[in-house]
Amino acid sequence: MTPPILTRCPWTFRPLADPGAARSEHAGRELPAGWAGSGTLCVAMAGARASGKSLYIAVLVKQLEQLAEAHGRVLAPVDDYTERCYREHYERPLFEEMGLMAPTPRMAAEDAYQREPLIFSLGTWEVDGERRPWHLVVRDVAGEDLEQLPADPGQLSFFRYADEVLFLFDPLKVPQIRSYLSGLVPAQEPGGDPLRVLRNLLTVLDGHRPRLAVALSKFDTLQALERVPDSEWARIMGNHGAAYRRDTGLDHDAADSVLLDREIRSMLLRLDAADLVHTLDERYARAGAPFRHFATSALGASPQGAHLDRRGIAPYRCLDPIRWLLGSRGLF
Ligand SMILES: Nc1nc2c(ncn2[C@@H]2O[C@H](COP(=O)(O)OP(=O)(O)O)[C@@H](O)[C@H]2O)c(=O)[nH]1
Ligand SMILES: [Mg+2]
C-alpha cells in the first residue's frame, strides 16, 4: 500500500498539518516558494565515517539531473542555500578539483553545512490523478554523529520522518576484503563500525520504520577482486549472469532491483556482516517495513591518495536506491 502523499517540512521531515501553509510549524520558518500542496520526498543518508555518503550525494545530484533531462524535465535547487552548498561542498571538490571531499563536520560544529538539507524541485507530476509540484530533499550526516550519538539525539529525529533512509555499508571495513585488495587498489583510511551505526540508527528511529535502502558502497573495490587469481571472490565477481555485474543506467527495472536485493544480501553474509543482515531481518524485514539491498559506486574506481583515478568518475548504480523511492510514487 502506498502511503498518503504528504507535504513535509524540509528541515524536520515532519508532515505539515496544513499542506498549504507558507510556514513550517515544526521549524518556525518560511517554506520555500512553491511549497504549498507539493509532494515531498525526504531522503536521509546514514552510514559510518568514510562509508561514502557525501561522495554519493555529489554524484547522485548529477545523475538526477541527467535523469530529469532524459524525461524532458529539470532538477532545480529550490533556494540559494542548496545551490551554494552543493557547489561549494560537493561539486567543486569532486568535479572541478578532481579531489575528494573533506570529512563532514559533526552536527554540533559551527561549520556543519549538513544541518540544512539540499532541496530540489522535480517539477510538476500527476500522481494518483492529481497534478502537483514534487520536491526531493536530501540530508547528509556525519558518520561520527551516528557512531556516537550527540548529547541531544533529538537533532537526528528527522530520520524518523524520512521517506527513505539510505544506509551505506563500506566493504573496505571487512578485513578479508582489505587484505585481498592490498596491492590491487590503493589503501584507504579505515572508516567507522557499520553495525554500531545501524544500532544507533534503530535507537534514533525509536520504532518508526521509514523505507530503508542498504547499499554496499564503493562497489568498484569488490569488482576489482575479479583480478585476484583463483579466489572465491574472483569467481563471485566474475559471474556474468549476476545482476550486480550490470548497471541498468537510466532505465530502472523493477525485476532487476528485486534480483539485486537477494544477491547483495547474500554478498553481505559472505562479507562477514551476518550480524548486520540478521539485525536488519529482525528489526526491519520481519516487521514488514519496506527494505531493500543495493550496490553503488560513486567513483567507479579507487582514488589514488587524495586524487581521483585519472580516468575520472564512472558512477555505478547510484540512482537505484532513489529510483526505488521515486518509482513508488510513479515519478520518472
Ligand atoms: N573506491 C571507492 N572509494 C570511495 C568511493 N566513494 C568514497 N570513497 C572513498 O571513501 C572516502 C570517504 O568518502 P565520503 O563520501 O567522504 O564518506 P562519508 O564520510 O561517508 O561522507 C573517500 O575519500 C574515498 O577515498 C567509491 O565509490 N569508490
Ligand atoms: Mg561525509
Report what the structure shows.
This protein is α/β, with parallel strands linked by helices and 332 residues long. It has one domain: 3-Layer(aba) Sandwich (Rossmann fold), CATH 3.40.50.300. Helix content is 34%, strand content 16%. The strands form 2 sheets. Strands 4-5-6-3-7-8-9 form a 7-stranded mixed sheet. The protein has a two-stranded antiparallel sheet with strand order 1-2. α1 crosses α2 and α6 packs parallel to α10. The mean pLDDT is 94.
Précis, in short:
With 332 residues, the chain is of the alpha/beta class.
Lay out the secondary structure.
Blueprint: E1 23-24, E2 29-30, E3 39-47, H1 53-70, E4 76-77, H2 80-96, E5 118-127, E6 130-139, H3 143-147, H4 158-161, E7 164-169, H5 175-181, H6 194-205, E8 211-216, H7 219-223, H8 232-237, H9 254-270, H10 274-285, E9 291-295, H11 320-328
Parallel strand pairs: 3-6, 3-7, 7-8, 8-9
Antiparallel strand pairs: 1-2, 4-5, 5-6
Helix pairs in contact: 1-2, 6-10
Bound molecules: guanosine-5'-diphosphate and magnesium ion (MG).
The site of magnesium ion has 4 residues, from helix 1.
> Low-confidence stretches at least 5 residues in length (pLDDT < 50)?
none
Helix-strand pattern: EEEHEHEEHHEHHEHHHHEH
**Structural class computed from helices and strand pairing:** alpha/beta
User: CATH superfamily assignment?
Assistant: P-loop containing nucleotide triphosphate hydrolases
Output the strand order for the largest sheet: 4-5-6-3-7-8-9
What descriptive keywords fit this protein?
alpha/beta, 16% strand, Rossmann fold, globular, two-stranded antiparallel ribbon, 7-stranded mixed sheet, 11 helices, 332 residues, binds magnesium ion, single chain, binds guanosine-5'-diphosphate
